[in-house]
Design a protein that fits this description.
The chain is α/β, with parallel strands linked by helices and about 350 residues long. The protein folds into two domains: about 150 residues, Glycogen Phosphorylase B (Rossmann fold); about 180 residues, Glycogen Phosphorylase B (Rossmann fold). Strand 10, helix 11 and strand 11 form a beta-alpha-beta unit. Helix 11 crosses helix 14. The longest helix has 17 residues. The radius of gyration is 21 Å and the shape is globular.
């Protein structure tokens, strides 16, 4: 008899897809592809989503599955465990603990919400799913959870990143030079974009004339500092361009045509852009934090982003060494292919068998 698994997919109805929505979509595809699973995606709770979320944050929401048949497992992929009455097992995905470690980086209303729902989910869920051993350790430390309650399902890159794109992003996004360094992420303090801009500006003029810095992503919480740095760079004639929110079908081409992808984050729950870049055949340079070491392993370089000179020197080391670029591309592609969704689904099924 097939296992019955239900997934809340309400995040997929949002106009702009977040990282949580991307994860939900990939997990949904993986569950639906497994022949041992009777999969049921649920797109909305029994009340309008805004009202239901508000009621839930004060523990007043009716059961999520009030009008649904019984199931073996219900997965909630967005930090909050909604009430259930017809699920044998309930799993909640907690992607990271930014709200605990960097509360100043979280929008105030969302911070209040996370402070209410995450501890509740950690205590009341039968299983916690997270993306990295790093965050698993943080959950054990902060909530005293038993190690056996938490499963880790790293996020494999989508197949589209392995496929060669024919989109001419140089022309489409009016990139100042034919070669460029790439970053994608919201303009928020946690992403540490100002450090990246400073490191780029410290590069020799000859390199900046050859390589642009291209930043994709929309404005985020407290984006003023990054915006000010971008404005200052533009006034100074630097080859730095913020292309804003992009069509996600363009993202593989932006990775694939980049000479280098840089992820200078101060904190992450996993770091899927690292693997997306690797799958695209692009060398990767990351901030020297544990979770990105876990994601990238020995297939990328790491840098102390608090030192502009060190950061800039690491960028230069990649751009000026064809041999290093080749090694990073080869090792990166090998690492990206080692992450497989079927392994994650097997890990989830193991908790039910």
């Amino acid at each position: 008899m097939r296992l019955r698994i239900r997934l809340d997919t309400s995040t997929l109805s949002a106009k702009h897809q977040s990282g949580v929505a991307s994860y939900t979509s990939l997990l949904s595809n993986a569950l639906s592809s497994d022949t041992d699973i009777a999969y049921e995606p649920i797109r909305k709770p029994p009340l309008p989503i805004r009202l239901y979320t508000k009621l839930h944050s004060y523990h007043l929401a009716p059961p999520y599955d009030l009008f649904l048949p019984s199931t073996d497992l219900t997965i909630f992929p967005n930090f909050a465990k909604w009430p259930t009455i017809k699920s044998k097992t309930v799993a909640t995905v907690i992607h990271d603990l930014t709200y605990l470690y960097y509360p100043e980086f979280v929008e105030k209303a969302n911070l209040r919400y996370l402070r209410r729902v995450v501890p509740h989910a950690a205590r009341r869920s039968d299983v916690i799913i997270t993306m990295s051993e790093t965050v698993k350790g943080e959950l054990i430390k902060e909530f005293g959870l038993p190690r056996s309650k938490i499963i880790v399902t790293p996020i494999p890159p989508a197949a589209i990143f392995f496929e060669k794109s024919t989109i001419d992003v140089i022309e489409k996004y009016k990139i100042p030079t034919n070669k460029y360094i790439y970053f994608i992420g919201n303009l928020e303090p946690r992403k540490n974009i100002t450090a990246l801009i400073h490191a780029y500006r410290a590069l020799p003029t000859s390199i900046k004339n050859e390589y642009s810095l291209i930043i994709a992503g929309s404005k985020g919480w407290k984006s003023e500092a990054a915006e000010a740095e971008l404005e200052k760079a533009a006034k100074d004639g630097e080859n730095i361009k913020h292309i804003g929110r992009i069509n996600q079908t363009d993202n593989p081409a932006l990775y694939q045509n980049a000479a280098l992808f840089v992820m200078p984050s101060l904190y992450e729950g996993f770091g899927i852009p690292v693997l997306e870049a690797m799958a695209s055949g692009t060398p990767v340079l990351c901030s020297d934090i544990p979770v990105l070491h876990e994601t990238g392993g020995n297939a990328c370089l790491y840098t102390d982003t608090s030192s502009t000179n060190n950061f800039s020197a690491q960028i230069k080391s990649v751009l000026t060494s064809p041999a290093l670029q080749k090694q990073l591309r080869t090792d990166g592609l090998r690492r990206a292919t080692s992450y497989i969704w079927s392994k994650n689904v097997h890990t989830i099924k193991d908790k039910l068998i």
